[in-house]
Amino acid sequence: MLLGAAKSELGQAAFGIELINQALAGFAKTGAKVAITYFLTLLGRAQAQAGDPEAALRTLQNALTANPQELIWRGYTLSCRGELLLQLRQLAMAEADFRNAIESSLSLGHKAWQLRAATRLARLLMQRGDHLTARATLTSIYSSFGDSFRIPDLREAASLLAKMANHLPAP
Question: DSSP code of 150?
Fold first, then answer.
């Protein structure tokens, strides 16, 4: 499963999809449902990278319904689907997914996924010209991390906040 996701991320999406599907077939034989949301999300991301957004959207929808009790991956899956919807210019649906991802991640205490969704939502809001809401959306979660964390999502959020500062009126 993870090898397929890695191959897909490295530009071998078709091979990655094949590996993920093989792993999912083996997983299905066991009857297990644990982490199925995550595994299907990996497949959806690989399908998107392979240039098949329709299949990716179907798979991400399946990921959200495959095991409704498994909430741990929901914020991640919603963010992935929001990113895909954004690429497809379905802005209202992307915004809804990012907002739902933030709520889901917040309720579970997943600050990193909350940050990722908030960054994507803030970027969308900025493109729409709503810089104040974008800044408010991102600042609250970003500031909760402190200076000791240096994950890529934090660097991306910091860069976006700096860009926003250039678009806001002076106090």
Answer: -
